[in-house]
């Protein structure tokens, strides 16, 4: 039997201290009546406003797919069927966003090199779905500690996995901005999708790499564990990255999940949007 779940969401994107344009985009939503919420973060690339277009296309496409999910038919289905429907919506949304970006590139030569990463979380009752393409990340924090839910699709991650590069060295590597998977590059893109059951109250944090370039997992855990109200962690984390140099755009989304007893926490800004290949793709 599913436990009672209360969901609250918040997010922010910031241009940082160096870039002239914000190519990140973020959107978040919490249903006013059902235990359903999502956060999507996209980190665009390509210049000439192409990166910002790619990230906007992605969050808008996924938001549309998710907005059509909670229907009487969905509510009447079994938990197993609901999970399959959520997974299908995630895959469909990423597929459609990928092709919408490719179509936009075909219409404008200036956008020839644009693409975007994406990371998202969808929560329905006590069921968590996480999907990503690229090196934007999702984390889970509870009283048990911090867990990174995604594994970067990047050159440095492959080097770490092969044992030729340490995680510490990866943060300053000359190829740290080279990703191996992105939307808008090939006709076929394969998101990495995972599912979890939420058994305890937790915070879910999604971010672009403009944050993780400056804060390691220990520093992220410290902020998520100590800064309250919890939904304002997104502001604190972005401030920390900007104080560290802010060389890239920075986006952070926070979902507060309260499992068990009925919660008095109300969603903050329940629906918001902010803009900002086996091939190696380098973000400028």
UniProtKB/TrEMBL annotation:
Domain PPM-type phosphatase: 4-257
Organism field: Thalassolituus maritimus
Protein name (record): Stp1/IreP family PP2C-type Ser/Thr phosphatase
Highest taxon, organism lineage: Bacteria
Pfam family, one: PP2C_2
Family matches, as InterPro entries: PP2C, PPM-type-like_dom_sf, PPM-type_phosphatase-like_dom
Coiled coil regions in record: none
